[in-house]
Amino acid sequence: MTLNFSYEALPTRVVFRPGAAVSATPGEAERLGLRRLLVICGSRGADTARAVAAALGPACAGLHDGARMHVPAEVAHRAVEVAHAAGADGIVAVGGGSSIGLGKAIALRTGLPLIAVPSTYSGSEMTPVWGLTEHGVKRTGRNPAVLPRSVVYDPGLTLSLPVPLSVTSGVNALAHAVEALYAPDTSPLIALLAEEGVRAMARALPEVAAGPESLEARSRALYGAWLCGSCLGATTMGLHHKLCHVLGGTFGLPHAETHTVVLPYALAYNTPAAPQAAATVARALDADDAPRALRDLAVGLGAPRSLAELGLAEIDLPDAAERTAGESYANPRKVTGGGVLAVLRAAYEGAEPATAAL
Questions:
Q1: pLDDT in tens, 210-253
Q2: Which among 53, 89, 134, 185 would be 20 to 30 A from 331, CA to CA?
Q3: Model confidence, pTM
Q4: How far is the C-alpha of 273 from the C-alpha of 330, rounded, in Å?
Q5: Cβ proximity of 213 and 166 under 8 Å
Q6: Residues 154, 21 contacting (CB under 8 angstroms)
Q7: What would the DSSP string read from start to end of 134-194?
Q8: In whole angstroms, how far apart are CA 44 and each of 13, 68, 166, 174, 256?
């Protein structure tokens, strides 16, 4: 087979070591020439954010703890106002996808450089993808301005992540790698990163669940999240991500849990059109059937098994399907209203994911 692809390396610096949140973040700010940094976080990660702010010393211009899931537009607007009022010349986002998403929203509107200090396995820190929710609709886009200049990975920050959230956050990361394998702009390098990312995360999550205090297991999960996030950063999102954006932005479903439930069914839908991608995932999971193996991994570790568990009403399934099918995006298999509704119904019921022929 003759190779035909393009690949653009993203200019992000990564520091990965225990204790790096406090020990490395000030140095990363100095390396970037930043002297007035606004630290942002959500309510859950405020203690860690305060420790990072203290480590920055005089370079900290303030702390804003207003991050919320799915980055509501009004929350982003308020954060931009806070950044302007503080005279910030940079942003440090400490926490999970909500915090980093808010940091990206500020960067998008102000051009301020962003440093990410992730405390979950969301992978958002490795992408130039931003998202905003307004009037019940979540919009996403790609802009190099929102890509963090530095990412500080500190496995110790994830030690306090509850096991249920660790599992769903980890499967959320897996979704990035899975979709990258069948993206129109995938490449051999992405295939290598995705397979290793899936393998690392799938092996680490049971160890995290069995021993949440294990820094070694947490480090391997964070390593997997880094690889999976890098895959998303270099490729185009498909059906899975668009469907989850609709379910989250319009119907208010929790981010990581929704990705966890939907992923096996989205992959089962796309498998007939992307058999090599499914085979790569199966190989990484040491399984024969990738969609079922993904579901078994998550459910076996106590994750939700259906959209009904997450609070979606059955009456909303047709609306969600219509909204998803009505968007324009790349996907290996043609996206139809009926096809999306079938995916949603299976995910709503928590049925065994079944691959349907084209």
A1: 999 999 999 999 999 999 999 999 999 999 999 999 999 999 99
A2: 134
A3: 0.93
A4: 13
A5: no
A6: yes
A7: ETTEEEEEE-GGGS-SEEEE-GGGGGGS-HHHHHHHHHHHHHHHHHHHT-TT--HHHHHHH
A8: 26, 10, 14, 23, 15
